[in-house]
Specification:
Blueprint: H1 5-11, H2 21-35, H3 76-88, E1 93-97, H4 100-108, E2 116-120, H5 125-134, E3 141-145, H6 150-155, E4 161-167, H7 179-188, E5 192-196, H8 201-204, E6 214-218, E7 232-236, H9 242-252, H10 258-268, H11 271-291, E8 295-299, H12 309-315, E9 322-327, H13 333-339, E10 344-345, E11 355-357, H14 369-375, E12 381-385, H15 391-424
Parallel strand pairs: 2-3, 2-4, 4-5, 5-6, 10-11
Antiparallel strand pairs: 1-7, 6-7, 8-9, 9-12, 11-12
Helix pairs in contact: 3-10, 4-5, 13-15
The structure holds pyridoxal-5'-phosphate.
Length: 425
């Protein structure tokens, strides 16, 4: 199906007469997200796409079809969601899969044995595990490099490079890769650019508009937004990949179920308001962390002191709500995590609840020690997915956790030195 933004606007009553692209994009993000593309049910007038909880679809008679036969190949509830995601990402077509990892795996299957790919060295540990442990035996060669440095990226290209895969902002060090430049480098080399757009979502960043070929998502994160559904998406810019991704989902069946598709469609309606609130809170949390005496460094792309702040402004319409920060004393980390009252110590991101993660032991545990050390993913680093609770409550919880842990470390030190004194006596 062909997606044309201006045509889509005509579908939704009240969006007529949009002249400029900027005007359109702004209104698209706030109105089309709510109205979706193909939501509802024309026959009954239902506003919500029905949950077609059926694995099988019958045919009216021989040589006639409704368009559906078996849910692994297609399901109306899932298709409504896929069309909305394709529209939001400005792509030709999207597939909804059972997890972000299933989406990333489907993109990897575009590669042949002996093909080379360049991957952001700072990326989600599960993606590293998939590339290095699971796919290595199929002869796919992977170079992990700092893709935020365009020169390094360019110099990493080999004659057999077929794919550049980036996360931007990266996870957890919040490095930003210039998507336009990465696309140029990929295309000059005859390769494709794949962008994991999980952190910013199409609400803040549209990589396909910047030259990327394929976008992947962990829909489990902001798109789902409520920490209750595991889900992934792949979105393509060119219809030449339709066959590959259709065959992938049809043959393997790692598709999103009807009920989960419904939940995702429901969540997408509030994406704009959630992302705005996430971001507003993140700015406040970032400002607070930067002034805290126990904090050594803060990494947030929306911070004016972030080295890629200007690039972020250029290629994205917002900064999201992922923050990493470094504490001065690594010994305080177990106490900080145990002292949290409001914030969950948990391994995910993008939901309405604020989560704190210890990347070195959780999300990035699968990455070899020497790579982690090189990146700075060490025992002093914590990652925050800032939720939509009241910002003051999030800040108060971080403050009390940092302060109490520091007191305990201090007390521990004092009792150690008292013990020593006793021994000496
Ligand atoms: C940036 C990023 N991409 C992909 C994934 C994998 O997604 P899922 O957990 O939905 O399989 C994650 C999971 O944390 C992630 O953070």
């Amino acid at each position: 199906m062909e997606f044309n933004l201006k045509d889509m606007a005509k579908i939704v009553k009240g969006l007529e007469g949009i002249d400029t692209d900027a005007d359109f994009l702004k209104r698209e993000k706030e109105t089309l997200i709510v109205r979706g593309f193909e939501t509802g049910d024309a026959e009954t007038g239902a506003l919500t796409t029905p949950i077609f909880q059926s694995a099988v679809f019958s045919h009216p008679r021989y040589a006639e079809a409704t368009g559906y036969s078996y849910t692994r190949a297609g399901n109306p509830t899932r298709l409504a969601l896929e069309n909305t995601i394709a529209a939001l990402e400005h792509g030709k077509k999207a597939w909804a899969l059972s997890s972000g990892m299933a989406a990333i795996s489907s993109v990897l299957k575009l590669m042949n044995p002996g093909d080379h790919m360049i991957v952001s060295e700072d990326l989600y540990g599960g993606t590293y595990r998939l590339f290095s442990d699971l796919y290595a035996k199929y002869g796919i060669l992977v170079s992990y490099v700092d893709t935020s440095d365009s020169k390094v990226l360019k110099n990493s290209v080999r004659p057999n490079t077929k794919q550049i895969f980036i996360e931007t902002p990266s996870n957890p060090m919040m490095r930003v890769t210039d998507i336009r430049k990465a696309a140029e480098i990929a295309h000059t080399a005859g390769a494709i650019l794949v962008v994991d757009n999980t952190f910013l979502t199409p609400y803040f960043q549209n990589p396909l508009d910047l030259g990327a070929d394929i976008v992947v998502h962990s829909g489990t994160k902001y798109l789902g937004g409520h920490n209750d559904v595991l889900c992934g998406f792949v979105v393509i810019r060119d219809e030449k990949w339709i066959e590959h991704f259709f065959m992938n989902t049809m043959s393997e069946g790692a598709v999103l179920g009807a009920f989960d598709s419904y939940l995702l469609s429901r969540s997408l309606k509030t994406l704009a308001v959630r992302m705005e609130r996430h971001q507003e809170n993140a700015r406040k949390v970032c400002d607070f962390l930067k002034t805290h005496e126990k904090v050594a460094q803060v990494y947030y792309v929306g911070d004016k002191d972030h080295p890629s702040y200007r690039l972020s402004r250029k290629q994205s319409s917002g900064f999201g709500a992922m923050i990493s920060f470094r504490v001065k004393n690594a010994k305080a980390i177990p106490k900080i995590l145990s002292n949290l009252k409001l914030i969950y110590f948990a391994e995910s991101l993008g939901g309405v609840e604020t989560l704190m993660t210890f990347p070195v032991e959780q999300t990035h545990g699968a990455i070899p020690e020497e790579i982690r050390q090189k990146l700075g993913v060490d025992e002093t680093l914590l990652r925050l997915s800032v939720g939509i609770e009241h910002a003051d409550d999030i800040i108060a919880d971080i403050d009390q956790a940092l302060t109490r842990s520091a007191l305990r470390v201090q007390r521990h030190k004092e009792s150690e030195s008292n013990d020593n004194q006793v021994t000496i006596k």
